[in-house]
Design a protein that fits this description.
Blueprint: E1 5-12, H1 18-27, E2 35-41, E3 46-52, H2 55-58, H3 61-64, E4 71-77, E5 92-96, E6 99-109, H4 112-121, H5 131-143, H6 148-156, E7 161-169, E8 172-177, E9 186-190, E10 193-197, H7 200-205, E11 209-213, E12 218-222, E13 229-233, E14 242-243, H8 244-250, E15 256-257, E16 260-261, H9 262-277, E17 283-286, H10 292-304, E18 320-321, E19 325-327, H11 340-350, E20 351-353, H12 355-358, E21 362-367, H13 374-385, E22 390-395, H14 423-430, E23 434-437, H15 440-447, E24 454-455, H16 457-460, E25 462-463, E26 471-472
Parallel strand pairs: 14-24, 17-18, 17-21, 21-22, 22-23, 25-26
Antiparallel strand pairs: 1-4, 1-10, 2-3, 2-4, 5-6, 6-7, 7-8, 8-12, 9-10, 9-11, 12-13, 15-16, 19-20
Helix pairs in contact: 4-5, 5-6, 9-10, 9-15, 11-13
The chain binds iron/sulfur cluster.
Length: about 500
């Protein structure tokens, strides 16, 4: 399962934006490792450097120095729509009659092809098959007839799907979140300006203060030279559709989303996991690093109550928390290994059990998800080979039964082990002594949301957007493209 993209935008008072953008992209590197880029504007012209690779590889001093201007946007990308080549690397930049545009997109449109066909018929020439270029062209067209705010509103009325955008229009920087707020985007205040970023960890990196999340359907326009920001609530939806996997998996644990520290959310999910499906074993251990916060919360809760929900006796310490699997930090993440054989080898390279923690013990292994089941199978086998008497798996999220169309590279339905297997069948397939997942109600409860305000598409098979061939969990429809969605008075 792969993170999608990270976006950032800054407007500063008299200081070049390139270096702060570069540091912010470093803070967002976990959200995309395929390409990185920065677009700035110096009041006269736009500057851009975009290339394939990690932030540290894409940018050297010689690349940052020419990026003049105190306003700009940045992007790290893992490809989710469009080809895996430099034509889809972002920010996407374009110059047109009324100025220049830069666009960074996190998410995925579900009606990009329809809009591309329509614009192509009007003479727009596309250089990539990505959906970001579609948004840029649509916005550029609207900017020929409308002011900036109305042009963005018109484009928002036409595109359907998941998006958190940072946009530069000449030296003005904007941030937009789709009406259901599927992907995160927040505003931060810096010593000499403002920043928009996918996660608050990027704001921390620049010694800034988190102001708040950008609201679903909101356009935020950063003031020139870092002077404040304006807010426009352009579109309202009845419900939000926040991706619950941001809290469970994608976001950095030190980021704050919806006023909650991601690390704390994960610990609380772990506590709930104990309450729902705790099992008394000698030791609880996380799959590093993904299961750590869940295991910590799970083990904490296990010191207070028994697996039956009774208060523990004073002389009963409950379940011991231990790090039983050591991670080799110099091995790449398994998801960049394209074949099954390579993925299997990667698990053995990445994790090594500590024999004294495992041998002769009953073990609960905690992780945040099971996608194909390959890693879980290998970990259970590793622990048993190391002398574990029993291995029980607990997962801090519900079963992933369906793919994601909102920008997560999650494997196909056929590859997802839970798409056609019951929990019992998965337990047998990974050879665990028991297996339990957290319920969707528990996720909603811990995140403090109604179920309908979360996207649960990959764990229910019902999506918050109108996706061809799939079920929806709410009353949503693709916009029709056969005419402007706004009247002249809107
Ligand atoms: S389908 Fe799953 S991963 Fe995709 S946006 Fe919804 S909750 Fe997130």
């Amino acid at each position: 399962m792969t993170e999608k993209c990270g976006v950032v935008g800054v407007s500063l008072d008299g200081r070049d934006a390139a270096r702060p953008l570069y540091y912010a992209l470093y803070a967002l590197q976990h959200r995309g490792q395929e390409s990185a880029g920065i677009v700035t504007h110096d009041g006269f012209q736009q500057h851009s450097h975009v290339d394939m690779g990690l932030v540290g590889d894409v940018f050297g001093e010689d690349d940052l120095d020419p990026l003049a201007g105190s306003a700009g946007i940045g992007h790290v990308r893992y490809p989710t729509a469009g080809s895996v080549d430099s034509s889809c690397a972002q920010p996407f930049s374009v110059s047109f009659k009324s100025g220049s545009l830069g666009l960074s997109h996190n998410g995925n449109l579900v009606n990009a092809d329809e809009i591309r066909d329509e614009l192509a018929a009007l003479g727009h020439a596309f250089t990539s098959d990505g959906d970001t270029e579609v948004i840029a062209h649509d916005l550029a067209r609207n900017l020929l007839e409308e002011d900036l705010v109305r042009a963005v509103k018109r484009t928002m009325g036409r595109i359907h799907g998941s998006y958190a955008l940072t946009i530069s229009h000449d030296d003005t920087v904007l941030g937009v979140r789709d009406p259901q707020g599927n992907r995160p985007l927040c505003i931060g205040e810096l010593e000499d300006g403002y920043i928009l970023a996918s996660e608050s960890a990027a704001i921390d990196t620049l010694d800034g203060d988190l102001v708040r999340d950008v609201r679903p359907g909101e356009l935020v326009v950063l003031g020139e030279d870092g002077q404040g920001f304006d807010s426009y609530q352009l579109v309202e939806a009845d419900n939000t559709a926040h991706c619950f996997f941001e809290h469970v998996y994608f976001a950095r644990p030190d980021s704050v989303i919806d006023d909650t520290l991601v690390y704390e959310a994960r610990r609380n999910l772990g506590r709930k996991l104990w309450a729902e499906s705790g099992v008394e074993t000698d030791v609880v251990m996380p799959v590093p690093d993904s299961g750590r916060a869940f295991a910590s919360g799970y083990a904490d809760a296990a010191t207070e109550t028994t697996a039956d929900g009774e208060a523990r006796d004073q002389d009963d310490d409950g379940v011991e928390f231990a790090e039983g699997l050591m991670k080799n930090r110099y091995v790449g993440r398994t998801f960049i290994m394209p074949t099954q054989d390579e993925r299997e080898r990667a698990v053995r390279l990445k994790l090594n059990p500590i024999k004294s923690t495992v041998e002769g013990k009953t073990v609960t292994l905690i992780d945040d998800s099971i996608v194909r089941g390959t890693t879980s199978t290998q970990l259970v086998q590793l622990l048993k080979d190391c002398g574990a008497e029993e291995v029980h798996m607990r997962i801090g999220a519900p079963e992933i039964v369906a793919p994601c169309y909102m920008g997560i590279d999650m494997a196909t339905r056929e590859e997802l082990i839970a798409s056609d297997k019951s929990v019992g069948e998965i337990r047998d397939a990974i050879d665990a002594d028991s297996l339990a997942y957290l319920s969707t109600d528990a996720v909603a409860d811990v995140l403090g949301k109604e179920r309908i305000d979360l996207c649960l598409g990959c764990v229910t098979g019902e999506y918050p957007y109108d996706i061809e061939g799939e079920e929806t969990d709410r009353d949503v429809h693709r916009p029709t493209l056969d005419g402007p969605t706004l009247s002249a008075d809107d």
